[in-house]
Design goal:
Structural class: alpha+beta
Strand content: 15-25%
Radius of gyration: 15 Å
CATH class: Alpha Beta
CATH superfamily: HIT-like
Number of helices: 1
Order of helices and strands: EEEHEEEE
Length: 136
């Protein structure tokens, strides 16, 4: 199986490229139920958080600060949920996980974008992962 994160291309219509640093790539997630939801992927293949190198960890802290500041400034995000599941990689045999983190901004207020309004109906609780919203 080819790692979908390693084989990602900037022309992938499902994951819009936002920014990259020396070690990390940031893409907009296809599900924008919580507007600004994105994925931060380690650019080299690495299957375990414990194997991330110290310089990658330090840069990740800068990336996290950058993302949170941008989403607070643009959409007035209230807080953030960060996660690193990698469960789908273990549905294959042998598994081939790739370290990436989901960034889910949370909102205690509606966010208006043009004619669209985004709301966080579960603010203050874990977000409902079954909710889906495509943004053209």
């Amino acid at each position: 199986m080819t790692c979908p994160i390693c084989s990602w291309s900037a022309v992938d219509p499902n994951y819009l490229f936002i920014h990259e640093t020396k070690f990390w790539r940031i893409v907009l997630a296809p599900n924008q139920c919580l507007v600004g939801r994105c994925i931060v992927c380690l650019k080299r293949h690495c299957g375990d958080i414990a194997e991330i190198r110290p310089e990658e960890v330090l840069e990740w802290l800068s990336v996290a600060a950058l993302i949170e500041a941008a989403l607070r400034r643009i959409f007035y995000a209230t807080m953030f949920n960060w996660s690193c599941y990698m469960n789908l990689a273990y549905r294959e045999s042998p598994p081939d996980p790739h370290v990436h983190r989901w960034v889910v901004p949370r909102y205690n207020h509606p966010v208006k974008l043009g004619y669209d309004v985004f709301e966080d109906p579960d603010f203050g609780s874990p977000y409902n992962q079954s909710l889906w919203r495509d943004v053209p």
